[in-house]
Amino acid sequence: MKQLLLLFCFFVAFTATGFSQTALQQYLQEANISFNPPQYLVFSQNEKSVYPNPIDTSKPASKDNPFPTMAQSYGMELASGDTYLNALLWMVTSIVESKKDDYCVLVQTPAINIKKIPRYSLPGINNCSEEEKYILNNMSFDGVKFKFRYGKPFEKATLAESLELMEMVHFYPKEKAKELFNANVLATFPINMRGTAYKGKYNRVKCVEISKEQSFINLYFMMTDENYRKFDTFLEDFKKVFWFNN
């Protein structure tokens, strides 16, 4: 009887841990994106989204507890230290450590599957060029606007703002987007760290947006002054780690 009880307890424990999904796995499953993590990339196992720099919600905000205010999150009030990155990115879905080189990546996805929300249509999009339409139909510039602290806060990016922001973003060829992630758009832009450093050393950041229609993943490559120019090599480390199946 004792042996049966031990076996039952082991089965319950295995079931609880073996079938639980991380926050990243939950989104990827909903968005029909395959996940193929290599051994040299270690993904965090959090089941809910987390701030890049850990916080304790039971304690007031301080230098050691970088919980951002709403005003700081929207750039209306200056944030410094570890609070700055938390205010700029809000919460991330996973934190990735590389075993190959000295960099890490913050993965950010929508809180819910964006396909469940009605598509946001930009008035006047029919007057755009075919290339502009292609980008706008596959990538929202709301996040870019927020990261650049561009235009009015609390508002989505207008068509005019989207077209202006498009000029500030680097787009890889469509073939590269397909090769790396089977995505439609692969875009990058730098993040201003304002003199701060993630984990005390990563002071250079580049955001990569991988998108296809209404599904997207943002990868924030956290790098140093010494290895920032190896970004393209780091991006290749993620080849086919995420694969859009739609």
Summarize the structure.
The chain has 246 residues and is α+β, with helices and mostly antiparallel strands. The protein is 30% helix and 19% strand.
- What is the radius of gyration computed over CA atoms, rounded to a whole number of angstroms? 20 Å
Q: Mean pLDDT, nearest integer? A: 89
Distance from N terminus to C terminus (CA atoms, Å) equals 51 Å
Uncertain ranges: 4-18
- Could you say how many structural domains there are in total? 1
Query: How many helices?
Result: 9
Structural class estimated from helices and strands: alpha+beta
Question: Order of helices and strands, N to C?
Answer: HHEEHHEEHHHEHEEEHE
Instruction: Name the beta content range.
Output: 15-25%
Fold topology:
Layout: H1 2-18, H2 23-30, E1 33-35, E2 41-43, H3 70-73, H4 82-89, E3 94-98, E4 104-108, H5 130-138, H6 142-148, H7 159-166, E5 170-171, H8 174-181, E6 185-191, E7 204-212, E8 215-223, H9 231-236, E9 242-244
Antiparallel strand pairs: 1-9, 2-3, 3-4, 4-8, 5-6, 6-7, 7-8
